[in-house]
Amino acid sequence: MKILTCTVPGRFDYGIAEMPVAAPGNSIVKIKRIGVCGTDIHAFGGTQPYFTYPRILGHELGCEFVAGDAEGFTVGENVTIIPYYHCGTCIACRSGKTNCCQTLKVAGVHVDGGMAEYLSVPSYTLVHGRGLGLDELALVEPLSVSAHGVGRANIRPGEFVLVIGAGPIGIGAMEFAKIAGGRVIALDVNPARLAFCQKTLQVDHALQALAPDLTEQISRITDGDMPTVIIDATGNQNAINNAFRLMAHTARYILIGLQKDEIRLSHPEFHKREGTLMSSRNATRTDFDYVIDCIEKKRIRPETYITHRLRFNTVKEQFSRLFGSGEVIKAVISV
């Protein structure tokens, strides 16, 4: 079968690998769609934590079940996977938080992922497609990451929620924050993405992150209170550090985005707000089920995120050019 490997930062190479065999506890899926995410882009750019090369990227997958011992799945069924392989015995797993297992291995990051024609996965990771299309299934994982972060925030109806970063994870966070009853303020540097948030997502407010009067704008919108929930979906150090000054007193700040360096904040400013800082890593099966339910009920329409499509055999040539343009919201690869 054909595979695509990120051999070193900035380079993909095609290759041939043996077809996987369904060992006990594992199943084989045929890859049909691959969503390209920030993890893939950062890995390609050499800025992804927890990463080693060479690596087959890809963990946002729309697949077809081919073979294996996964109970209740039928050959030819459209599925997706939960790409977080967990141990099941550590303290996180025992408490149901398999998303942050102590020995977690994420497909496409710690172990090879789905930029291939076929993939062997632990059978427990399979998720029924429930009639969703392959494009929708490829977006279930990133939307689950968004939903998990919003769940961590425990948004109350009417709260102002500032979402920093209008990429796919941030857009998903805006959608789920709205479903929770939050009044969403979108923040980004990209005018096209802000326009998407206003026109397609119909967020309450969309602001330019580099505006010199940004703090004053947010203060006016919130009647001087500032947002009681802030969600970072950028993974940008400056964006993460600068957002502390935008927190309301009693605010919760959730970091979905991840960067390599230190978080810096004024302890007195954070302390006097009695602020809460939380990380949000990956997602759980409960999040996946919730996302699929929202898609089924048309509460969220992930196909509207897709702005670019690639064929598997053109990724090597198009990847760096496409993701250097700033025009992509979501790209999906067809295999």
Description:
This protein is an alpha/beta fold and 335 residues long. It contains 10 helices and 17 strands. The N and C termini lie close together (12 Å). The relative contact order is 0.15. The mean pLDDT is 95.
Task: Throw out a few tags for this protein.
single chain; 335 residues; alpha/beta; 7-stranded mixed beta sheet; 6-stranded parallel beta sheet; 17 strands
Sum this structure up briefly.
The protein has about 325 residues and is of the alpha/beta class.
Distance between the termini: 12 Å
The protein's oligomeric status is: single chain
Instruction: Please give the share of residues in helix.
Output: 25-40%
The sequence of SSEs as H and E is: EEEHEEEHEEEHEHEHEHEHEHEHEHE
Structural class: alpha/beta
Give a count of the beta strands, DSSP E runs of length 2 or more: 17
Strand content: 25-35%
Q: Indicate the radius of gyration in whole angstroms.
A: 20 Å
Low-confidence stretches: none
* Average pLDDT score: 95
Largest sheet: 7 strands, mixed
- Overall shape: it is globular
How many helices does DSSP assign? 10
Topology:
Elements (H helix, E strand, L loop, with lengths): L1 E7 L2 E6 L9 E11 L1 H8 L14 E9 L9 E4 L2 E2 L5 H4 L10 E2 L11 E5 L3 E3 L5 H20 L6 E5 L3 H12 L3 E6 L2 H11 L3 E4 L5 H8 L7 E4 L4 H6 L9 E4 L11 H6 L3 E4 L5 H12 L9 E6 L3 H8 L7 E5 L1
Parallel strand pairs: 10-11, 10-13, 11-12, 13-14, 14-15, 16-17
Antiparallel strand pairs: 1-2, 3-4, 3-8, 3-17, 4-5, 5-9, 6-7
